């Protein structure tokens, strides 16, 4: 007998609750310190019910790290690398990215765990690496575009892109304020300098 719409909705909500709780636990207690029992208790869901959605802890961890990438990609890649006005486009990109990163501290803690233990999580690391490289390539293209139009100084575009993404991650992990604090907006002009703007 097929599930009713209400049953499907309830299952979706339970899955979302499990992922939300698991994300927090993995970020605060690490992979080793997080157990299915802790997840079930924090989510107020029976131990056995967790396995309805995830067959093991490894699958749950993989899901909390990789599933959000589609959502983040919509924002991270929402800029035109071939824009007619690369200076304006890069300012818009930085503004969008800094506000996105301001709200993703818990998630980035998971990413850092995977990067720091890439031998332990090779498949997850590989997918994160591919995602990151795709972003680096697009930012690099925007930098090249700006250089070709004479609005950015000549420097290695890929290096600039790598420094840019590293800066975003580092600022988020080293800043303890909330995402709405004015300090995030104050970073934007300094980050722009990384791209070597030429003001005429």
From TrEMBL:
Cross-referenced InterPro entries: Homeodomain-like_sf (IPR009057), HTH-type_TetR-like_transc_reg (IPR050109), HTH_TetR (IPR001647), Tet_transcr_reg_TetR-rel_C_sf (IPR036271)
Domain HTH tetR-type per the UniProt entry, residue ranges: 12-72
Any one Gene Ontology BP term: regulation of DNA-templated transcription
DNA-binding region listed in the record: 35-54
GO MF term list: DNA binding
Keywords assigned: DNA-binding
Keyword DNA-binding included in the entry's annotation: yes
Domain of life: Bacteria
Keyword DNA-binding tagged: yes
Entry-linked PANTHER family: HTH-TYPE TRANSCRIPTIONAL REPRESSOR SCO4008, TRANSCRIPTIONAL REPRESSOR
Protein name according to UniProt: TetR/AcrR family transcriptional regulator
Native organism: Radiobacillus deserti
């Amino acid at each position: 007998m097929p599930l009713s719409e209400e049953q499907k909705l309830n299952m979706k909500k339970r899955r979302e609750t499990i992922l939300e709780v698991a994300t927090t636990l993995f970020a605060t207690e690490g992979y080793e310190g997080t157990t299915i029992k802790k997840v079930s208790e924090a989510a107020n869901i029976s131990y056995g019910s967790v396995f309805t959605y995830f067959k093991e802890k490894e699958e749950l961890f993989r899901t909390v790290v990789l599933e959000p990438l589609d959502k983040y990609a919509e924002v991270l890649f929402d800029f035109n690398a071939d824009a007619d006005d690369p200076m304006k486009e890069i300012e818009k990109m930085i503004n969008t990215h800094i506000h996105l990163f301001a709200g993703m501290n818990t998630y980035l803690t998971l990413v850092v765990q995977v990067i720091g233990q890439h031998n332990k999580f090779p498949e997850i690391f590989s997918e994160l690496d591919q995602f990151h490289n795709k972003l680096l390539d697009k930012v690099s293209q925007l930098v090249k575009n700006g250089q070709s139009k004479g609005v950015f100084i000549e420097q290695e575009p890929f290096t600039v892109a790598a420094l840019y993404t590293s800066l975003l991650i580092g600022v988020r992990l080293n800043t303890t304020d909330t995402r709405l604090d004015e300090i995030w907006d104050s970073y934007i002009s300094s980050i722009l300098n990384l791209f070597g703007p030429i003001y005429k």
